[in-house]
Amino acid sequence: MAGTIVVGVDGSGTARKAAEVARDLAAALGARLHVVSAFDTDRTEVFGSGSDRWIVSDAGEAEKVARDVAAALAAGELQVTYSSARGKPAEALVREADRLDASMIVVGNRRMQGLGRVLGSVANSVAHSASCDVYIANTYGAD
């Protein structure tokens, strides 16, 4: 297969499980793995004391989540990259997959039952709008 597999993470146990499935798929298929965390706002806060200043932003926090998961998944010869992407999670994943010309997006099946199924889920939105294959990983019980 080769190419790139994109997976979205948000710090939850279900997203972590989907990322582990994506890692295993990428390793088995000889693909690269790209970990994405979405952020929907541009909120930024500055903290400081004296001349020391720290800037905390949604984009920075999203990138930290993606970086931490990517670092935890990296093993052997698997090439793992990460990024943060602005927008709602499903839109951000599809946009990143298009940007990278990915061959697959991996998402978890969280909120695909009950009320979540009626209101929509990231997996449902991605499956209906992706221009590449979508793998929906069973993540029930991960949270």
Automatic annotation (TrEMBL):
Domain of life: Bacteria
Name of one Pfam family that matches: Usp
Domain UspA: 1-136
InterPro entries, sorted: Rossmann-like_a/b/a_fold, Universal_stress_UspA, UspA
Coiled coil: none
Signal peptide: none
PANTHER family tied to this protein: STRESS RESPONSE PROTEIN NHAX, UNIVERSAL STRESS PROTEIN UP12
UniProt similarity note: Belongs to the universal stress protein A family.
Protein name from the UniProt record: Usp family protein
Species this protein is from: Arthrobacter globiformis (strain ATCC 8010 / DSM 20124 / JCM 1332 / NBRC 12137 / NCIMB 8907 / NRRL B-2979 / 168)
